[in-house]
Specification:
The protein is α+β, with helices and mostly antiparallel strands. Helices cover 40% and strands 10% of the residues. It is flat.
């Protein structure tokens, strides 16, 4: 069978591993028959072509699609938390370049959907049973998809949230009022101790997204009752702008919390104040690197850091 890619973009190892693998990993999470194409996705059997589209095993929700945008090959042999490149804290990102050489041989990093290099991403929701300004929603997020918050922007809005506006900062101009920059502050700090910090991000992320999904239902109901187009546009614009600014301020508060709690590699937990106390020191944990990583250090350095018996600290 001849397919278009045979003419316009013949699949080679890089095409499969760097591009098709992204699709495979998403497909495999919603269709139980996809395992048969794993060798193709990994670039090992380019003749075992994956289908262009699939039917999910069951209906998927809007929030499910947001989850698919956060794919780093989890649940596959390419899972980016499972090799030494993840470091001691199971980080899902790899610093570029994509390919690199050691002793004349070329090696590569995985190229997942979720990557630190993302500027922005979105999930488009189309609802043709609603008026045009109301029926389309761009669930918009900035920075790494794994730690972004998809925030609803109705397609009929007449202005955007100031935190997301063009001209509020740039790649070489930091802005404290820019959603792009505050999300990068949070994600880049998380990369330093990923498996400890990311659960706090995901908790806040999920709470915001699920709350917006509920708020959209209410907004739809009210907006449909507005008879004048002008009133409808004002209403959905106000909603979208407020949602965007709420996401921004929530993330700014999250950064303050995370930086305070995880600064310097320690984990601090606030303690309750005893009666008549104005201040009490936080509980401080120093979890270190974890047993697996310590074994890697010992394997690499042998006895360099071996303490003499009986010389406890």
């Amino acid at each position: 069978m001849i397919v278009n890619s045979d003419t316009y973009a013949p699949v080679n190892f890089e095409g499969a591993r760097f591009c098709e693998a992204r699709v495979y990993s998403m497909f495999s999470k919603i269709n139980s028959q996809m395992l048969q194409y794993e060798d193709y996705a990994m670039g090992k059997n380019l003749h075992n072509r994956m289908p262009l589209w699939i039917k999910p095993d069951k209906k998927i929700s809007l929030h499910d699609v947001m989850g698919l945008m956060r794919d780093y090959y989890q649940g596959t042999p390419m899972d980016m938390t499972k090799d030494i490149g993840a470091g001691p804290y199971e980080c899902i990102v790899r610093w570029r370049p994509l390919t690199w050489k050691v002793d004349g041989k070329t090696y590569f990093n995985e190229r997942s959907t979720s990557t630190q290099q993302t500027g922005f991403s979105f999930v488009a929701q189309s609802r043709n049973w609603l008026p045009d300004p109301l029926g389309g929603i761009i669930w918009f997020g900035v920075d790494d998809t794994y730690s972004t918050v998809y925030t609803p922007m109705y397609c009929g809005i007449t202005q955007v949230p100031p935190a997301y506006a063009v001209g509020n900062g740039s790649m070489m101009e930091f802005s404290e009022t820019s959603a792009f920059w505050i999300f990068n502050q949070v994600s880049n700090f998380a990369y330093t101790r990923y498996n400890a910090i990311i659960p706090f991000i995901q908790e806040k992320q999920s709470a915001l997204e699920l709350s917006y999904i509920k708020q959209v239902q209410k907004t739809d109901s009210i907006a449909k009752t507005l008879k004048k187009q002008e009133d409808l546009l004002i209403y959905i614009t106000d909603f979208s702008v407020n949602a965007g600014q709420n996401t921004f301020s929530s993330w700014k508060q999250l950064y303050s919390f995370l930086f305070t709690r995880f600064m310097d590699g320690n984990i601090k937990t606030k303690q309750e104040l005893p009666p008549n106390y104005k201040y009490v020191s936080p509980k401080v944990e120093q979890p270190g690197y974890g047993d697996d990583w310590y074994r890697k250090i010992v394997f690499d350095t042998e006895d360099k850091f071996l303490a003499p018996e009986g010389e406890g600290h």
